[in-house]
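Hi, here's the filled form for the chain we discussed.

Project: internal
Contact: R.S.
Residues: 213
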Amino acid sequence: MDIYASDEEKGEEIKQWWRDNGTSVIVGCLLGVSVLVGGRYWVSYQQSYTENASSHYQQVIALLANDDFVEAENTTQQLLGEFAKTPYAVFAAFEMAKQSAADDDLARSKTYLEWVAANADLAGQIDIAEMRLAQLLLDAAQYQQALSLVEQPQTNAFDSLFAELRGDIYSAQGQQQLARAAYQNALLSLSQGEARQQLLQLKLDDMSGSTDG
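And the returned structure, exactly as it came back:
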């Protein structure tokens, strides 16, 4: 726009500019408002979603404390179905797996742990689920399936625990040489002075002089 033009000329230029660009400006403003309103709605929805998931998880804990396993399972299933993307679904699945194992319902415990392994977002939660699954399979003498779960953790923090569990599985199979190697790897993965060093050393000492069966 010419800054030296008359007021009348400026007015005409403004009108012409508005005729040429008015629709785009209006659409842009409407889109901006929509994004702002939609963003606020999404934040509010996410907050409500998470709070509902937390409430369901607290219900699971309370029901288990009152030995109401049936209702706890119903609430957990609702969490796994409607709130699967929240951490509370994983927490509830772990709690139900633990209670199922305590009740000697290993099949149900296995189902919950498998759900965690398949759906958890955090690598550490997946590692924990797979270790607990492997322990269940070891107790059921399903050694090869157990070994397949503890070949390699997703996080280095579980290197020693995975190696120790491999040692336990090999030992149960009578493969003492492989068990010793696994326990030694577990020891090497620990920092000096960690409490588990003594336990691992005891496992190695118990196997001293033993040969593969």
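Let me know if anything looks off before we file it.
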